[in-house]
Amino acid sequence: MTLPPPPFDPELAAALEVVAETLPSSFGLDGIAERRQGLAFLDTSDEQLSRDGLFEVEDRAVPGPQGAPGISLLICRPAGSVGGRPVIYHTHGGGMIVGNNRLGVDMALDWARELDAVVVSVEYRLAPEHPHPAPVEDVYAGLLWTAEHADEIGGDPERIVIAGASAGGGLTAALALLTRDRGGPRPLGQMLMCPMLDDRNDTPSAHQMAGLGVWDQKSNETGWTALLGDRRGGPDVSPYAAPARAEDLSGLPPAFLDVGSAETFRDETTAYASRIWQAGGVAELHVWPGGFHGYDGFAPQAALSQATVAARLAWLRRLVGE
Amino acid sequence: MKELAGRLTALDPDAGAAVRVIAYFDRLAESRAGLEALVRGAAVLAGCPARLVDAGRRVRVRVEPDGSRRDTDLPPDTRWPSESLTPDGAAALWLERSGAGPSVVDAVILERAAGAIRLVLDRTRGRAPVSPADDPALVETLLDPTAPERARLLAARRLGLDTADPATRARALASLDGPPRILSAHLGERPADTALPAGRLGVGPAVPVLDLPRSWAAARTALRFTAEGTARDPGPGVVHADDLGGISLLADLVVPGAEPPPDVHALERAVADTPWMLVTLHAVAATASLRAAAAEVNVHHSTLQDRLTHAESLLGWPVRTPQGRLRLQLSLAVRKLAQETG
Where's the Alpha/beta hydrolase fold-3 domain (chain A) (predicted)? Predict the structure, then answer.
C-alpha cells in the first residue's frame, strides 16, 4: 500500500522547487561523484568562517584512531575569549559519502556567537572508500583530542556538546554510544538534527517519501550500502554504525532530536527519542510539520526554519546553564 | 536559499533566474501560502527588505532578506521599485532598493509576488472596500421580491438592520448612475440631506425590512421625476416618493420613449420656440405665485406676463388659471416621464 505523504510546508515546497535541480531526491552509488560536486557551492572559506574577526579559525592536524591516518579538526574560537567556554563538537552530514568539516558549520557558528562557545568540526573519512568503522572512529578520535585539549583551545572539557545533522546526526548518536561504552569523555548533551540512524531503511516515512525531498529511500540505501556493503539491513550491523540497532539506550547524555514530518528519517528519529525515554533517559523531540530533509539549511529564511533554529538555541542555552 | 538568492543575483538578467522566481511563487500560491510567506519570498529572492502596505485593509508586512519579520510605521520611499495591488495604487508591494533602478529579476519578483498577494488578500480579507452597506449582492437580495424571505432577512442583518425589532424601518435609494442603496429610517422622519449620496436620486418610503422591494419600486419611480436642474432640464435633483403622492400614478401610464399625448407635443413646440420658455413654464408650475415665479427666473413681473401671453398662444391653453396651471404641471410631468433617462 502506498501511503500519501504529508504535504510540504508551503514556503519549503517553493524552496524545494528551486533547489531540486542541484539536489535530486534519488541517486545511486554511481551518483556519488555528482553529489559531491553538487555540494561544492556550499564550501566556506576561512574568511567567511571568521565572520569579520569574530572567530579565530584554525585547521589542526591531530592523531586519528589507532593504526589509522591522522585527522583534521576545524577549530573556531571566539576572538579574545578568556577560556573555559562551552565546546560544540560538530560532525558534518552528507549521507556518509559526501561533504567536509565545513559543511553545516555555519549553524554551529551561529550558536557559538550566541553562547560565546568554541566550535570544533571533525573531518572524517568518507564511504564507500572508507566503510564502517572508519568514519565513526575518526569522529571518536577527534572527540578524544578535543576533551584532552579543551583548555588549550579555550574550551571547558566538562561542557562539550556533540552535534550533527543527517549523517552527522547519526554519527553523533553513535559517538554518544561509543564513548558511553568505552568510558570515554562524557558529553554534556547530544544534538541529533534530522539524524540518519537506521540502516534497515524500512520505516513508513521512508516508504512514504520515496522520490520526494532531497534525500529519499533510494539515496538513503546508497549511503548505507556505501558504509556497510552487503551487511546493510542484515542481522549483524553494529550500533556504532546504525544507532537504531542499539539494544540499550540508557545512560546517554541528554538528547535533542528534531526532524521534519515530510522526510525519510521522521519515523526512525521519533522511535529513537521514544526509546531513550523508555530507557529512563532525557530527550527533547521536535517534529516540524511539512519539513523536508535538511530544510533549515536549504531555506533558512522560511518561518518553519526560523522556529527550528530558535528551538535548538533555546535547548543549548538551558543545557550550558548560563 | 541564501545561496540561491546569491546565485539568482549573480545570474541576473539571465532568463533562468526569472524562471526560478516564477516557479517559486507559483508553488507558494499553489499551496495557499500566507501573506508573510509571499513577502518573505520577495525579500529573499531580491536580497533586500520587501514590504506590503494595504492601508484600506489594515495590512502591513515587512520582511528582511534574512527572512525575519520587521514591520515599520514609516512610509515607503516612492523611488523604490513597487507593484500596485489595487487600481488606485493605495495598496502596493515594495522592494526597498535605493540607487540603481530595478533589475529584470526585481520586476519579475514584484509581478509574481503581487499577483499571488492579490489573491490572498481577496481570499482572506475580502474585496475592498469592506463596508457591507456597499455590498451589491446583499443589497440586491434585499430588494428582490422573488428572493426567499429568509435570504432577505439574512441580507438585512448583514447590512446592519435589526430584523428582530418589528419597528425597524428602512428605505431604498435609486440613483441615476450608482448601485441601489439601503438607508435605515425612522418612521415619519425625512432623511437628512447629508445622509444621501450625491447626484440625481429617487428616495423610497420608509418601510419594514421585507417591504423594501416596494420602497425600491417607489424610489425608481421618484427617480424618473428628477431633473438635471439646468436650463435645459429644470427641476429638483432629489425626489422623495413620499412627496409625489398620487402624481406617481402618472409614472405607470407613461412608458419612456412612447408617443406622448398632444399636450406634450404642444409643450415641445413652445419649448423649441425660445430658450427661456422651459424655465419660465417650470417656474410657473413649481412656485406658489406668479410673483415668486418672476423672482425664480429673475425677470420683472410685467416681463413674465408678456412671456406667458406668448406661451399661451403657442400652447393653446391658459396657464394662469387653476385648471390651466394643472394642465401645464401634468404636461411637464408627462414630458419628464416620457424621457428615456430617469
Answer: 89-295
* Complex ipTM over 0.90: no
Residue from A149, A31, A137, A26 nearest A83 by CA: A149
Contact indicator for B149, B165 with CB cutoff of 8 Å:
no
In angstroms, rounded to a whole number, what is the distance separating the alpha carbons of residues A113 and A115?
6
Out of A10, A19, A305, the one facing B32 most closely (by C-beta) is A10
Split into its structural domains, chain A has a count of: 1
Q: Is B74 in contact with B53 (CB distance < 8 Å)?
A: no
Residue in B closest to A18 by C-alpha? B20
Residue B18 CA to residue A211 CA, distance in Å, equals 26
Among candidates B27, B32, B67 on the partner chain, residue whose Cβ is nearest the Cβ of A302: B67
- Is residue B70 less than 8 Å (CB to CB) from chain A? no
For residues B185 and B169, what is the distance between their CA atoms, to the nearest angstrom?
5
Q: What pLDDT is stored for residue B312 in this prediction? A: 94
Range of the domain at A128: 10-320
CATH homologous superfamily for B254-338? PucR C-terminal helix-turn-helix domain (1.10.10.2840)
- Which grid coordinates are listed for B118? 492579490
The lowest-confidence range among A36-50, A164-178, A213-227 is A36-50
Spatial distance between the Cα atoms of B187 and B208, rounded to a whole number of angstroms: 10
Looking up residue A272, the CATH number of its domain turns out to be 3.40.50.1820
